[in-house]
Amino acid sequence: MKKSPTKSDYIPPSERESLRDVVPTPQDDPKTSLVAIDYEPLFAEIHSYFRTFYLNEEYSERAFDLTTEVIECNPANYTAWWFRRKCLQEAFPNRKYHEEVLQEELDGFCKEWLARSSKNYQVWYHRKWLIEQLNVLPRGELQLMSDLLADDDHKIYNVWSHRLFLVKTFCSKSKEKLVGELGYTTEMLRRDVYNNSAWNHRYTIQGMLRQLLGIDLQSQERKALDTAEEHAIIELLFVKDRLLEADDNEAAWNYLLALTEVDYKWLLEPFYDGGAETSAKSRDPVVGKFLAKDIVDCFRQKDKENKHAIKFEAFLYVTLSRVAKARKQELESRLTKGLARASEHFEELRKADPIRQNFWMWKKDYLKKEFGQDMAVAGS
Predict the structure, then answer these.
(1) CA 291 to CA 149: how far, in whole Å?
(2) What is the distance between the alpha carbons of residues 188 and 134, in angstroms, rounded to a whole number?
(3) CA–CA separation, 152 vs 157, rounded Å?
(4) CA proximity to 114, closest of 150, 144, 83, 155
(5) How many Å apart are CA 244 and CA 200, to the nearest integer?
(6) Which domains does the chain have, with CATH numbers?
(7) pLDDT of the chain, 380 residues: tens digit per residue
(8) 19 by DSSP, 3-state: which?
(9) Nearest CA to 183 among 157, 160, 162, 202?
(10) Among the residues of the chain, which ranges form H helices?
(11) Alpha-carbon torsion (45, 50, 53, 59), positive or negative
(12) Which of 93, 88, 130 is nearest to 113 (CA)?
């Protein structure tokens, strides 16, 4: 680490020619403090010089260099990381040189801190900011994330969060990359089926892939529905295989529940507008049947008291009820609007066709006899 206080050849700020004009600002603790913090002399000196730069808003190269030492003293120091970014923005005005400095910061300082402190949020935020400034996916960045997750601790939130940022920012328009990312989650879940971070990542990637491929899970058009159902069954088979490995895995059950309640709810019982091509077979609830037989029945037969299977079945029925309620409201709305429009048209016909105005009035009145209370709701 450049100019690290831990190095044997380290020169303190007070002995540097480049900082001779800087008047250090010591920590101003009130004399009435209950407990005075006894800082190490070097720690206090470094921060006194940094405090002067901060108060004077001096975003220079020498201030930038000093942040290296401040961060070395305390890697979680939010202000030091923020100040370092301000220096990167303002101390290097030449665009080409600025980009070179950002790249050097990414490949050097930031990467070194990732290796030293992979769970430090400040490091990850700094790296994300650098990539946003460069506006390009760094070569080997996804592989670096894979390497960081390759050891025993493969659930580190910051790594998964950064990986998702990379995919959303640079890979969302590429089918090949999204499919590859889905394959990565498959690999990670086969290594550890309890990896909740991998399940969360997979859920987001699935949504991005569906959006890119134009798979509409709410469409009731036959061809679109066939595609959506095929996509859903492939994913549900994957989840079932993982549950067969560990049917007590709450992460997998929650993933399945999210698919059912949010993504696949309109596929549970397909609802068509009708048409000559709509047969009884075409209304077969493929996804709903799979969930009922291949998931609920399968795991309840294995263990009737499996709390996760019971919970899933309960919420499956709740979701079915919500779908039924929504469709009931939709049908009632269609009925009300249809009767109102029919009544309006019969009234128009009474005026446009006066010779048969009595007939049209009779047709309008007959609606009340045929539809009763529904006509009152329609306001006719």
Answers:
(1) 32
(2) 30
(3) 14
(4) 144
(5) 19
(6) 1-135 (1.25.40.120), 137-214 (no CATH)
(7) 446 676 678 899 999 999 999 999 988 877 777 777 778 889 999 999 999 999 999 999 999 999 999 999 999 999 999 999 999 999 987 777 889 999 999 999 999 999 999 999 999 999 999 999 999 999 999 999 999 998 768 899 999 999 999 999 999 999 999 999 999 999 999 999 999 999 999 999 999 999 999 988 877 777 888 888 899 999 999 999 999 999 999 999 999 999 999 999 888 887 655 444 444 445 578 898 889 889 989 998 888 888 999 999 999 999 989 988 988 888 888 888 998 899 999 999 999 999 999 999 999 888 888 888 767 666 65
(8) helix
(9) 202
(10) 41-56, 61-73, 78-90, 95-104, 111-116, 121-134, 141-148, 157-170, 175-191, 196-213, 222-245, 250-258, 286-289, 298-302, 307-352, 357-371, 373-378
(11) positive
(12) 130
What length is written for the chain?
380
**Rounded CA separation 255/250 (Å):** 8
The residue behind tokens 């400040």 is 122
